[in-house]
Amino acid sequence: MMELELTLPVNSNRDHVQGPQKAPVTLLEYGDYECPYCRQANLIVGKAVQQLGNKMCFAFRNFPLTQIHPHAQHAAEAAECAGAQNKFWEMHDILYENQQALEDENLVEYAGVLELDMPRFQDDFYNHTFALRVREDFLSGIRSGVNGTPTFYINGMRYNDSWDQETLTKTLRDIINEIV
Amino acid sequence: MSTQAEQQKQTSNALQPGTTAPNFTLRTTPDKSVSLDQFKGNPVILLFYPADFSPVCGDEVSLYNEILPEFQRFNAEVIGISVDNIWCHIAFSKHKNLRFPLLSDFEPKGNVAQKYGVYRKNDGVTERALFLVDKDGVIRFSYVSPIGVNPGADGILKALESLPQSTEQKRDTRT
After folding, report:
1. Distance from CA of A144 to the nearest CA of B (A)
2. A89, A16 in Cβ contact below 8 A?
3. Which of B56, B59, B62 to probe by mutation at the A interface, max A CB count within 10 Å?
4. Which of B109, B113, B162, B168 is most buried when burial is the number of CB atoms within 10 A of its CB?
């Protein structure tokens, strides 16, 4: 439990990533769409991505705490369903922006807003096509020492410092400056 | 410095792997008690935590609640223990939708935690500690976390996997 290394490395073939995978710094977040702290973190990470551009790669994995967040699992699956249609990040942002409305019918509505192929989305969503994928994310988090959400990994090591805007951006920038 | 030294000392007091786990009987509801020895034959995870409703404990029990299916693959039971009284446990359990029992080490206060070497006398609460007791009642893993740090579950999962004769391994050899 003191091993803070990511057991399943970030890989753009399986993970949802923003930015080049060969960027000097890769930030991975384990998050839950119904977690208020994750909602806050999403804004902070968004700003960091804006500021650091293609020097950083951001990846997101699901860590739904379903017993305290009854909508988190389906929300995560909805994001994956959108991901199957190359709209993961669009759905990701909509979910955080509408955290108070994550009922199944809301999730389907958001798919409509994103103009997804609706029969396909509904088929994937109601058949829980990506439930196992979400569980795989979750278990990879458990094995890597995720204790709650959000938990971040920077270049494969767990980040234990504060994730307020200033600290997080500075940490990422310092690593970039060290490497470049 | 002194607090760190004290913590080291307290850490070393926790019962170590190889020790027989002291049996106990504690209440979980007004009319129900749970004893360690009733689980003999299955591994048991003992989760000592300082207090119901404190933020880190909340995360910790939520996490364990969420991972229950993984523990069940090893037929392992999870038991939470703190010095809170049963009414507090009932409220906390309901609040977190917990699917494992919380036991009340309330009277004499911290008695079981003391037997396991994880009672913080000065604070009147238990350490944040994890024990894995194997099917024969022997401690196979023990860990005391800094009081404010959620210990996570990777350590306990690894310990479960390395149990010599886990039910799952037995099942594997049969097929």
Report:
1. 7
2. yes
3. B62
4. B113
ipTM above 0.85, yes or no: no
Name the residue facing A145 among B99, B143, B154 (closest C-beta): B154
What CATH number does the domain containing B129 carry? Answer: 3.40.30.10
List A16's β-bridge partners, or say none.
A60
**Closest by Cβ to B97, choosing from A67, A142, A146:** A67
Among A102, A85, A116, smallest CA distance to A32 is for A102
Report, at the CATH architecture level, how domain A16-179 is classified.
3-Layer(aba) Sandwich (3.40)
Domain layout of chain A by residue ranges: 16-179
Task: Output the six-digit token pair for B25.
Answer: 């009987």
Give residue-wise pLDDT tens across range B11-47. Answer: 469 999 999 999 999 999 999 999 999 999 999 999 9
Model confidence pLDDT, tens digit, residues B70-129: 899 999 999 999 999 999 999 999 999 999 999 999 999 999 999 999 999 999 999 999
In a domain, B7, yes or no: no
Residue B57: active-site member: yes
Residues A40, A90: Cα–Cα separation, whole Å: 17
User: Which range of residues forms the domain containing residue B160?
Assistant: 13-174
Does residue B80 belong to the interface with chain A, where contact is any CB pair within 8 Å?
A: no
Please check whether residue B2 lies inside any domain of the structure. Answer: no
